[in-house]
Amino acid sequence: MSYESPLREPLVTGGKTYADVTRDILRPMENKASKGWWIGFTISAIVLGIWIAASTYTFLTGLGVWGLNKTVGWAFDITNFVFWVGIGHAGTLISAVLLLFRQKWRMSINRSAEAMTIFAVLCAASFILSHMGRPWVAYWPIPLPNAFGTLWVNFNSPLVWDVFAISTYFSVSLVFWYIGLIPDIATTRDRATGFRKTIYNFFSMGWNGSTRTWHRYEMIALILAGISTPLVFSVHSIVSMDFATSLVPGWHTTIFPPYFVAGAIFSGFGMVLTLLVIGRVVLKQEEYITLGHLDAMCRVVMLTGTMVGLAYITEFFVAAYSGVEYEQYAFINRATGPYWWSYWIMMGCNLIAPQVFWTKWARSTPWFIFIMSIIVNIGMWFERFVIIVTSLHRDFLPSSWTMYTPTIIEFMILLGSFGLFFTLYFLFIRFLPTINMAEVKSIIPTHSHDKHADHAHAEKGDTLHG
Amino acid sequence: MHTQRKEIHYMDNNKMLLGVYDNPDATFDVTKSLVEKGYDVYDVYTPFAVHNLDRVIGVKRSRLSTAAFVFGMTGLVSAVTLQSYTSYFDWPMLIGGKPFLHIPTYIPITFELSILFTAFGMVGCFFIVNKMFWGRNTNVIDLRVTDDRFVIAVNIHQGKTDVNELSSILTKGGALEVRERINEL
Fold first, then answer.
1. 3-class DSSP state for residue A2?
2. How far apart are CA B86 and CA A145, in angstroms?
């Protein structure tokens, strides 16, 4: 049904038929789990155990087990929160923004990127919970009448906006993901037997592939994409307002919203690359996630990395130009103060390193892209660390200047959050199709081996083909 | 055939002729010519959305977009009501000298709730109009239709539909198989 110019590189290579797509994508789910899957899943589950242990210890003992002090009241927790929320932006960006721009290369990667989004937002939410110190009162930011012992929440506070933004983003992303999954769950259902069939039948909601259903499906997919696009931008803008609406030098910056959004896209694509460069080989999906896909994502990484770098430099300019002494000191302290190393890790990883993607070799060498994606992840973690810790540790009163050192518990929670993320991700690749089969089938040229091939692009409806 | 089936749709009896294809283009062409020749095409089942097929078989433009707008507005009104009621009417609190009714700070939550209501309301309506719910058992017209087959289902009206001609159109269009089915959909 789809016609692409023969000059263009095909989005799916290997001359796949529709049946090939179904078979290839469902292979990891329909066969017994491989040894590699068990090893990966076990390691992730053990690391998840570290997260559970460290969080439980924190909750039982109190936030005193962290390295926070009265000057640096936000540190690892919020760094990790912003880090994970940022990663959680690529999925919806890929599926929504690229859908609106009709970028068909999104179709092989949107499912796993959306899954990644949902799991990353869960990790982010876990840091909000642990940061509160008393997770059993985590419902307090929800506007409930004061019969619960609280007053109404303060709607002037960006922290309350954040509660709404993150929970809306999580639930809308989940709905968007599930809607996209329904036709593929139906495909799985129709090939499954026994207990698996019962489960997939339950979640397929009676999908039957009717044109009427597809008509409505396409419409809601477009509208969901349309509303998710501003949602993605709003969420990280609001996260940035947690800082930007404060008066702390280094936070009190109007460029934060676009700068954070660019950073979120950057880190999100970094994480997508980390997962897919490995995943496409392990799941034997090189023909679906081609070097062309990696190339496109590397370009996005380079562009957004440069935007983030521009923002770093702009901040310095604005601080110098503003003439505000506190602001100027905050930035000089970032680059040359006691935390200078974290600043230069950030600069090196986010602005300088991605420039290698100007070369074709860098964009088309998977092992190199993998290393780069790790560098991007590290760089973006340090960006948040720099913004949060270096701004706080030396503020207006030199008498309260101090240093922040994370404790082993905080490291365990950070490490453990990766366990949470990867455990969920391994479960996902075992039980759900990692590539949107229905969409990928729609971009495969009406198959070449088919006996109708010569008529495939004939003018529609004028004749019947015999 | 005398058992009463409650879900019989607009037809004289409940028989359909199915043409099974492996090619979306052939499916599209055959469907179009069937519609033009006045056959009652009940539905076409495809593994992915075949564009324009909905228009050819005369599916009316869905009103889900209107529903989405209505839900979005509901979200907007709810958000404004919630925020102004709580922070102005019910329990005004002086925080940092800011006004009690401070419209600009309501914008983010208003925006988020509009999106939330739009998404959930619209998707809820989508499930309702398609009669989709968790655990629903469906009688798929052909198991392969979610894999790589395209099925055109044409209603047979006793005495009106020339089954032989219909069958030959379906076959000539490239059908892999043509068979009859009692409609239970």
1. strand
2. 9
pLDDT given at position A454: 44
Chain B CB contacts of A182 under 8 Å are 132
Nearest C-alpha in A relative to B150: A209
pLDDT band at A8 (very low <50, low <70, confident <90, very high): low
B87, A154: Cβ pair inside 8 Å? Answer: yes
Q: Per residue, what are the HEC states of chain B?
A: CCCCCCCCCCCCCCEEEEEEECCHHHHHHHHHHHHHCCCCEEEEECCCCCCCHHHHCCCCCCCHHHHHHHHHHHHHHHHHHHHHHHHHHHCCCCCCCCCCCCHHHHHHHHHHHHHHHHHHHHHHHHHHHCCCCCCCCCCCCCHHHHCCCEEEEEECCCCCCCHHHHHHHHHHCCCCEEEEEECCC
Q: Is A192's pLDDT higher than 90? A: no
pLDDT digits (tens, 9 = 90+) for A53-102: 999 999 999 888 998 888 888 888 999 999 999 998 888 888 888 888 88
What integer is the mean pLDDT of A175-180? Answer: 92
ipTM of the complex: 0.88
Is the CB of residue A183 less than 8 Å from the CB of residue A438? yes
**Inter-chain CB proximity B24 and A446 less than 8 Å:** yes
- Residue A356, pLDDT score: 93
For residue A108, the distance in angstroms to the closest alpha carbon of chain B comes to 15
Mutate to test the interface with A, among B45, B102, B115, B117 (most CBs of A within 10 A): B115
Instruction: Give the N- to C-terminal CA distance of chain A in Å, as an integer.
Output: 18
Strand order in the sheet with B41-45: B41-45, B150-155, B15-21, B177-182
Collapsing DSSP states into helix, strand and coil, what is residue A375?
A: helix
CB A390 within 8 A of CB A342: yes
Q: State whether A160 and B82 contact (CB < 8 Å).
A: no
| B144-161 per-position pLDDT tens digit | 888 888 999 888 887 777
Question: What percentage of chain A reaches a pLDDT higher than 90?
Answer: 47
3 state DSSP class of A445: strand
Note the CATH architecture for domain B15-60+136-182. 2-Layer Sandwich (3.30)
**Residue ranges per structural domain of chain B:** 15-60+136-182, 64-129
Indicate the domain borders of chain A.
Answer: 18-141+157-447
Chain A nearest-CA residue for B116: A168
- Do B30 and A460 lie within an 8 Å CB cutoff? no
Whether residues B47 and A209 touch (CB distance < 8 A) is answered with yes
